[in-house]
Amino acid sequence: MDARVDKTLRITTPSDVEFAMTRQFDAPRHLVFDAMTKPEYLVRWLGCDAMAMPVCEVDLRVGGRYRYVFRSSDGIEHVLTGTFREVARPDRIAFGETFSMPGFASDEYLVTSTFVEEAGTTTLTTTIRHPTKEARDGHLNSGIEKGVEPAYDRLAKIVAGMA
């Protein structure tokens, strides 16, 4: 593993309705792209340690849908669903997404991930665009970094094993 790879999760706010999360991975971008889009890898890193992921369905094509169900130990389900709007392997992927759990359902937001490779290191930038500043701020202030940082650490281990 290359010590020059910056494993820090950086969160920025490019506009009043967007936030972006950026991190580097010590792997070629096609492996990072595959780990982010294939169910056999997604179930190993997406979500948090406290929840199982009993449903991971992906129809990776423009217009295709996905559905991820996370279940807590007390049986509460958190569900992410969406439709792929752009699939340009291994450069870019974009999809609409909604989040729901008992008593809450989000409006749809747009997720765009770009994969830039330089000398075998991939910089992943995921930008989340909400319909309003209030929705962005609610998502941004939900403690998202506490879930994304360990998930990206698991993703880094998976792509290291894929090389």
UniProtKB/TrEMBL annotation:
Residues 26-159 form the Activator of Hsp90 ATPase homologue 1/2-like C-terminal domain. InterPro entries: ASHA1/2-like_C (IPR013538), START-like_dom_sf (IPR023393). Belongs to the AHA1 family. This is SRPBCC domain-containing protein. It comes from Bradyrhizobium septentrionale.
